[in-house]
Amino acid sequence: MLKKLACLSTLVLLAAGAASAQEQVVNLYSARHYSTDEALYSNFTKATGIKVNRVDADDAGILARLKAEGAASPADVILLVDAARLYKGEVEGLFQPLKSKTLEAAIPAQYRGKPTADGSTPWFGFSTRARVIVYDKVKVKKEDVDTYEELGDPKNKGKVCLRSGSHPYNLSLFGAVTEHLGEAKAEAWLKGIVDNMARAPKGGDTDQIKAVASGECAIAVSNSYYIARLIRSTNPEDKAVMEKVGVVFPNQASWGTHLNIAGGAMAKNAKNPANAVKFLEYLASTEAQNYFANGNNEWPVAKGVSVSNAALQSISGGSFNAETIPLAAVGANQTKVQQMLDRVGFK
Ligand code: FE
């Protein structure tokens, strides 16, 4: 009897908890899964009293779930990685563009979605990552891989390892190169990369770095945070990998290294839109930028915020020239890029 009573009171407590939580919550669908994000969420709750309910899934899973849920979706805020995916969410109508003086002041225009007719912004970038070239320090000279164009140069035949061309990280890089070179030259370049491949595309960015270290290929492409992760790893195998490979931030003498973002948006059918805006604005604060960017070895996007990260420092040399084209334009190129990939046989 006593036991039954205890169970009942637990139920009552749970119900009360659910009821009060309904008043001040923000429902987050996140493609981020970094342990440092926990501190980010608990600090937001401490500062605002708004509880963060989180659903973790990968980017494709989140976009599919939002579509399936439609108007009934409980999602208020969506966090995704890569401009190609943010653009996809935007054109599929899954976001609710918003106006926020705080976000517009903090986030440079090149890292935001293209404004709608009434001046609202569909999505905001909160951290940047560079897409860099990794090479075998013994077999390859740095000056033969210090531009993206050289990935497709015949001098590098049989040396290049890449993940799938259709992965958003590559769609965005290729979309950026298309902005710089124009379609015809970009397609010829992609054909050159296919001709230079050491093997068919497979695996993730870390697998490409390891393939260079193992000698399977001599040149690869990776996001900067995967390299920083290997540098910071305590695993001796990871340390051995990083001893064999060099890292170059491409196109320093021309348009700059390609940068991508992790970012966020308000969900189209947000049930707590005011809390969603508060949460997104919080992500642009100095405190949140530190957790958000540094937690995954990325650079903060908000103006005036800098972090010191020894691993990033060691590969970038402290500062580097980054591309300045708007990521909205890069995202918008992805259908075109996919068609070029199909034409040149880039899997
Ligand atoms: Fe990644």
Q: Which features characterize this protein?
A:
single chain; alpha/beta; D-Maltodextrin-Binding Protein, domain 2; 15 helices; binds fe (iii) ion
Report helical residue fraction.
40-55%
Written as H for each helix and E for each strand, in order along the chain, the element string is HEHEHEHHEEHHHEHHEEHHEHHH
Ions, cofactors and other bound molecules:
fe (iii) ion
Summing up helix and strand content along with how strands pair, one would put the structural category as alpha/beta
Low-pLDDT parts are: 1-19
Which whole number gives the mean pLDDT?
92
CATH topology-level fold name of the largest domain: D-Maltodextrin-Binding Protein, domain 2
Number of domains: 2
Largest sheet: 9 strands, mixed
Multimeric status of the protein: single chain
Distance between the termini: 65 Å
Radius of gyration over C-alpha positions, nearest whole angstrom? 22 Å
- For the record, the CATH architecture of the largest domain stands as 3-Layer(aba) Sandwich
Number of strands: 9
Principal-axis shape equals: globular
Strand content: 5-15%
Supply the CATH superfamily name of the largest domain. Periplasmic binding protein-like II
- The number of distinct helices, counting runs of at least 4 residues, comes to 15
The CATH class of the largest domain is identified as Alpha Beta
